[in-house]
Amino acid sequence: MFKQLGVIGCGLMGGSFALAMKKAGLVKHVVGYSKSPSTTETARRLGVIDVAADSALLAVSGSDIVLLAVPVSATEATLKAIRHLIGPQVLLMDVGSTKCDVVDAARRALGDRLPSFVPAHPIAGKETGGVQHADAGLYQGRTVILTPLAGTSAQAVQRATDVWANLGAQVLKMSPKNHDAAFAAVSHLPHLLAFAFFQSVAAQPAGRDFLSLAGPGFRDFTRIAAGDPAVWRDILMANKAEVLAQSQRFRQTLDALEGLLKADDAAALEARIRLISDARGQWQMGQMGQIGTPRPAK
Amino acid sequence: MFKQLGVIGCGLMGGSFALAMKKAGLVKHVVGYSKSPSTTETARRLGVIDVAADSALLAVSGSDIVLLAVPVSATEATLKAIRHLIGPQVLLMDVGSTKCDVVDAARRALGDRLPSFVPAHPIAGKETGGVQHADAGLYQGRTVILTPLAGTSAQAVQRATDVWANLGAQVLKMSPKNHDAAFAAVSHLPHLLAFAFFQSVAAQPAGRDFLSLAGPGFRDFTRIAAGDPAVWRDILMANKAEVLAQSQRFRQTLDALEGLLKADDAAALEARIRLISDARGQWQMGQMGQIGTPRPAK
C-alpha cells in the first residue's frame, strides 16, 4: 500500500495506471501532472487524478510511488527535473516502449538516485490514446517487462513486481538490450513496414483506386500504420540500431522468397509458405511459439 | 433464372456460390465436381450440390451456368476438358484471384467458345476454406470484379452482372491488367511481406522468445501469413511481374523511411508518419480513399 501516487504524463498509460492502482486499493491519493494544462485538468475532472500539479516536481512531492508516462524522448529532462525528490523510499517507474535509451537517460539524470528506478514496459495500449480512454483494466492479463539495472535496488524491483502483479499483469524480467532486440522484431519493425507499405500503395498514381478495392487482409495488415506519429518517431529513433538490424533480416527473407518466385520454383515457394503458414497457424498471442515443428503437409 | 448450375471445384467459393444461387431462387438444380471424390461427396451430403458428377465435363453437361472454382493453375486444363460443351447459351465464369493468367489460359483453351466466358473475382473469402464452411451469404455486400475481354459477348457480361447483383454483390468492371496491378498492391504483396516478416522473426536464434512477447499489433499484421500455401503459390506465381513491381515500390518507400532514421531526422520522420497515419485513419474498407488530403496536424 502506498501513500501517494505521482503520475507524470496523464495520458492513456499514466491515467490507466492511476485508475488501476486506486481500484486495486494500492493507493488512496493521486497527484498528476501533464505538460499540457488542459490534459491535467481533464484528468482531474474525470477523477483519474485527485490533484492537478503545476509541475513534474510538484507531482513527485510527497509521493512514494511515481510513474513516468511521457514520450521516451522526454525521459531524461523529466528525470532531471524530479531527481532531488526521489528518495530511497520512492519507487520510480516508467512505461516506455524502448529501454536502452531510457536506461541511458536514467544513468545520466539520476546519479545516486538510480537504485529507486525500475524501468518498465507494459505490453498494453489502445488504438486511441488520451486520458479520456484511460481504463482501470488496461493492464489486466497483460505482460509487463521490467529491465532492472545492476544498480537498481532489489527491494525496488520486488515492489515493482508486486505492484504490477496486483494490477493483474504477468511480470517478466530481461535486460534492456534483450528487450529492445525483441521489440524491434515483433513491434517496431512491423510498424515501420506497415507505414512504408501503406505509403507505397497510397502514393502511386492509381493509389486511390487501389485503396478502394482493398479488403480485410489489407485492413488488418495496415491497422498499425495508423499509430501515433510522435510516439513512433520516438520509438523508431530510440531503437534505431535494432530496428535496422531486424529490417536487414526481413529484407534477406523477402529476397529469398522473391528469388523462388523469379526462378519459377513453385514447389519450393509452396513448401516455404507452408512452413510459415503452419507456424503462424500455431502461434498464439502470449504463448510460447512452436516454430520449427511444422504440422504434416496437408 | 437458370436451369442447371455446374460447379467445378466444390470448395468454399464454389460451394458458397451454389448455396447462394439456390437461396436467391436463381437455380433449382446443382451438379458438382471436385478433383477429390471425398470433397464432391461431402458437398452432396451437406446439400451444397444435388448431384455429384464424376468429371468436370459431366458437371457441365446440361448446365446453362458453370462456375469454375479451382486453383488458378488448374484453369487451362479444366477449360480444355469442358470446352466442347460450352455452347453459346452457357454462361461460364471463374472466381480466380488473378486475371491476366486466367484470361490467357481461356484464350488458349476456349477458342470460339471464348464469348461465353466472363472472368470474375469475388473479393470474398474466409480464414478457413473447404466446402464445410460454404455459406450462402459469402458474397452478400462484397465486391465482385469482372474482367471481360473484347471477345466476350455483351449478353454474357450482362447475365454475369445480373447474377452477382442478385446475390447481393456490387459489380465492378476493369481490365485484367488493371485488376492484377491493383491486387498485387493491396493483396498479393502484403501476403508476401507477411510471409517474409513472420519467417524472418521466427527463424532467428531468439525467435521463439520473441514470438512469445508479441502483442495485438503483431497478431493483426501477420494474420494473413497463415494463408493457404497452394492458393498463395498460385497467386504469387501467376501475378509475379506485378507483385515484384509493387515490391520494388515498397522497398523504395522503406528505404526513404530508413534514410530519415539513419539521418536522425526526427522531424521529417514524424511528418512522414503523420501523413501516413492520418491517411490510414481516414481509409475505410470499400470506400474511396482520401489520400493526399491529410487532416491538420494535432
UniProtKB/TrEMBL annotation, chains A, B:
Q: Look up and give the organism this protein is from.
A: Roseateles oligotrophus
Quote the protein name from its UniProt record. Answer: Prephenate dehydrogenase
EC numbers for this chain = 1.3.1.12
Pfam families in alphabetical order:
PDH_C, PDH_N
What are the alphabetically sorted keywords of the record?
Oxidoreductase
A molecular function (GO) held by this record is:
prephenate dehydrogenase (NADP+) activity
Domain Prephenate/arogenate dehydrogenase, first and last residues per copy: 3-291
Recorded hits in InterPro entries, A to Z, give: 6-PGluconate_DH-like_C_sf (IPR008927), NAD(P)-bd_dom_sf (IPR036291), PDH_C (IPR046825), PDH_N (IPR046826), Preph/Arog_dehydrog (IPR050812), Prephen_DH (IPR003099)
Q: What is the lineage of its organism?
A: Bacteria, Pseudomonadati, Pseudomonadota, Betaproteobacteria, Burkholderiales
- Which GO BP terms, alphabetically? tyrosine biosynthetic process
